Amino acid sequence: MAGPRTIASFRLPPLPTIGEVIKLYNLRAEKQLSQNFLLDMRLTDKIVRQAGSLRDAHVCEVGPGPGGLTRSILNAGAADLLVVEKDNRFIPGLKLLSEAAPGKLRVVHGDILTYRMDRGFPEVITKAWEDDPPDLHIIGNLPFSVSTPLIIKWLENISNRTGPFVYGRTRLTLTFQKEVAERLTASTASRQRSRLSIMAQYLCTVRSCFTIPGRAFIPKPEVDVGVVHFTPLAQPQIQQPFKLVEKVVRNVFQFRRKRCRKGIEMLFPEAQRLELAEVMMREADVDPTLRPTELSIPDIRALADAYSHLCSENQGLLTYDFREELRLKHLKRRPGSSTNGTQQPV
């Protein structure tokens, strides 16, 4: 009787170690790019395992650098690995790795913030949004400088089902500065609860996987690193446009130590501020004395729905920015001195 088929039996041939590749190509982590190399293959293997089975899967790796995580992804059985690397110093080493894995590794020299991932994979892998996630994963040991803007961009892509999410509910396994990882996964009323917690959790199931000590990286960062896994929800917990939700959440959390009503008031022009804030809080039926960190996703949903309703009745309200109103007020009060100006909230 024939034995079971082992699809994921591919193993890379003997190669220089990552440390040797770094020496071979004279690579150094650039501090201004917040680069930190992870050389321990046991840790890169552990990151990859958090993504689930990669057997015969399509994978996009963000910022592969010298290729440690790349090797772990290939050894996990990925059939098609696309790596997007901005720093051209790493391209020769990645091409060496591509030659060792013929037909499995594609190297793109580009910026992940602008790369069109919706064109990076075959349409045949696409799944309906309500179905199980597609056999496509995004994995990356992200530089600290790009991690927050990148996850915000991808969360908006999830909301709009664009970018890497044209294929369905593409899963992500990413590293973040430990503090950011804690914010992403923070529960209601916890100290780390933040704007990022709400924006991630209303769109995804967010799971904290494990923490990597800073000493595991070269050069050693001043902080530890958290690995976080995201699975987009089939139905977002808030049924409003991403920009509207983001505006409500941003306003609420800018006064995180005050009661939530303070931030809600700043959604409205000064002349109508108290009146419309009262209408919004009453329509949402949210306790105005709660601190921002105490607001649950259902609370934010009720506030976003109430704000959307008010925007439909008040032209221009959605684009109103209280900071701009304050700036114009300062200009009017500045004949020769700005000492009479109102201090802008921060």
UniProtKB/TrEMBL annotation:
Keywords associated with the record: DNA-binding, Methyltransferase, Mitochondrion, RNA-binding, rRNA processing, S-adenosyl-L-methionine, Transcription, Transcription regulation, Transferase, Transit peptide
UniProt key word Translocase: no
Cell compartments where the protein resides: Mitochondrion
Record's GO cellular component terms: mitochondrial matrix
SUPFAM superfamilies listed in its UniProt record: S-adenosyl-L-methionine-dependent methyltransferases
EC number: 2.1.1.-
Pfam assignment, any one: RrnaAD
Molecular function (Gene Ontology), one example: mitochondrial transcription factor activity
Principal cellular location given in the protein's record: mitochondrion
GO biological process: transcription initiation at mitochondrial promoter
Top-level taxon of the source organism: Eukaryota
Domain Ribosomal RNA adenine methylase transferase N-terminal: from-to ranges: 43-234
Chain positions recorded as S-adenosyl-L-methionine binding sites: 36, 38, 63, 85, 111, 141
Uppermost EC category: transferase
Family recorded in the similarity comment: Belongs to the class I-like SAM-binding methyltransferase superfamily. rRNA adenine N(6)-methyltransferase family. KsgA subfamily.
HAMAP family: 16SrRNA_methyltr_A (MF_00607)
The protein's name: rRNA adenine N(6)-methyltransferase
Source species: Hucho hucho
